[in-house]
């Protein structure tokens, strides 16, 4: 309960800060929309030439992409950890975080939230709506709940992987290039999993389970029964991976060396 | 009750050193050379509730590391730390609600939002009731004279203004123990005076324990009954400032301005057999001698008889001087 109220306090502050810089907000908004549009155009161009990929139609792939954008947006809004090493370890901001009576990871999530990213989710929903209209998909009332569950599961999988990577900074303060690399790999989840080689498929399912952020849960809505098992496993994977990340984080905080003055 | 109990506290850091050259760099990939550095080396002390303690030492003496262990930021390598009856890093979230922390070189406030918004957020974070907040903070805001600053964003404040707001922010939950790491660094004299006066006031009013590190000895003189002095991770003095002064500050400092150039050797030879420390002053031909009071006439006599003097001053030895001497000569006995 305390954490929920703190969450809303930070969010209110965040809004106030953002509204102070109205021009910035507008520019950010437009550039976000642009990058979404570029992605979409790319996808459409690719599928202008091929209408079928490993048995997946253009619209199905569009739907997966649309779905992927939603958990990705949620992740992007709350887990801005890409500069964690620089900001919190090297510059020593972690000291300040650790002197406050709220879990350190939670504080960092709140401090670094970027709610604009949620816009990407809106784009995703529009794409999904468009694709499902063309596929004439039908939904039940409980699909909304499934959708929320899958989105949260996907976002937590992402968060789990990236938080775990961020904890490396507690052990070694050297800068690594793992983060950008991982951002690239993370994009693989938005394409149908069976276009990849068996090994990659295994990795994307069990080791860096980015397939659970896009293709697996989306196949539930597409009625692809052969993937249902995986789809339902999404929230569980989210809990497992985020749980591991929190354990690693707590162990890392004990190892924190602090920055010199 | 003791606010702080520290026993044989130790913190070691691994420090990696890289080998030279390309081959060295390649070897570093597999096995890295490291040595273990003891930043804090088996220190023990206790601080009673309501004390103001100055924690001093040169850069790298281990002050910040100790403070970070006492505030739960760092995990000690060995030893016992009990602060406010708790183990700081084990029960961190519960523990930090009972302390206030100000790091002079690092802001606790949010850069972009107004000061009072930061306060409001911290009030929520520390779960302070509206009533407690009003009662307590009104007084603090008034005492620090930050009322007019409350609606300004932190980035628009001067350093002195910001520092006063930082202090207020650290006290929102009225903690019984306050850690101040370089609280007056870079501040002008008026702000320093205000902050010192304020610290004394809350110490008297709430019996708040204060542990402060500083490079500014005048802070210590104004505030602290007791100093703990640290050198290379070890405590070299723990006791009252008065005793320190009596023991080390006896004697006088004589500043001579000579008419012509003079060498250190010549001066040392001149006062051979006497207990005198010569130091070169900042201006040309200015030298100071630290002399036990009893030898004052003897030293002046010898110097004046031999050289022509333009000017001469006799001063008490300052605390700063005492501390510098201690560091130069090593451990204090007594």
TrEMBL record, chain A:
Tree of life domain: Bacteria
Membrane-traversing stretches: 25-49, 61-82, 115-133, 145-171, 199-221, 227-249
Keywords: Membrane, Transmembrane, Transmembrane helix
Pfam families per record: ABC2_membrane_6 (PF06182)
InterPro entries referenced in this protein's UniProt entry, alphabetically: ABC-2_transporter-like (IPR010390)
Name of this protein: ABC transporter permease protein
UniProtKB/TrEMBL annotation, chain B:
This protein's record includes keyword Transport: yes
Keywords: ATP-binding, Nucleotide-binding, Transport
SUPFAM superfamilies: P-loop containing nucleoside triphosphate hydrolases (SSF52540)
Residues spanning the membrane: none
InterPro entries named in the record: AAA+_ATPase, ABC_transporter-like_ATP-bd, ABC_transporter_ATP-binding, P-loop_NTPase
GO molecular function: ATP binding; ATP hydrolysis activity
Domain ABC transporter per the UniProt entry, residue ranges: 24-257
Protein name: ABC transporter domain-containing protein
Organism classification: Bacteria, Bacillati, Bacillota, Bacilli, Bacillales
